[in-house]
Amino acid sequence: MSPDPSDTQSPACASRSEKNQTDNVLSPAEHINLRYVLAFIYPVVTMIKPFLAWKGHSREDVERMYEAWFKAVVLQVTLWTRPYTRPGDY
Q: CB within 8 A of 19, min separation 6: which ones?
């Protein structure tokens, strides 16, 4: 069963209230909106291509690894969309 994002006792709410406490981080951001996480997919995905080509792999291998990386990143963000959001957060 999926967590109810409107439930104030859900893990998503507990994580938000405990944000940065584990590492004692002083952060000006109380919350990072999901739209910024989604927008961050592009730089995370595109910056990997030179790294993949660094060891001299063929262009075809680099492209296959790049496509796999793209799918993995998008899938991870997609899976986190549901528990991450609450009504009004986006």
A: 27, 30, 31
Q: What is the pTM of this model?
A: 0.59
Q: Read off φ and ψ for residue 56, nearest 5 degrees.
A: 85, 25
> What's the longest Cα–Cα distance across the chain?
51
Cβ contacts of 9 within 8 Å, gap of 6 or more = none
How far, in Å, CA of 57 to CA of 64, rounded?
11
pLDDT tens track for 13-57: 556 666 666 667 777 677 777 788 888 999 999 999 999 999 899
- Domain residues of the chain, as ranges? 31-90
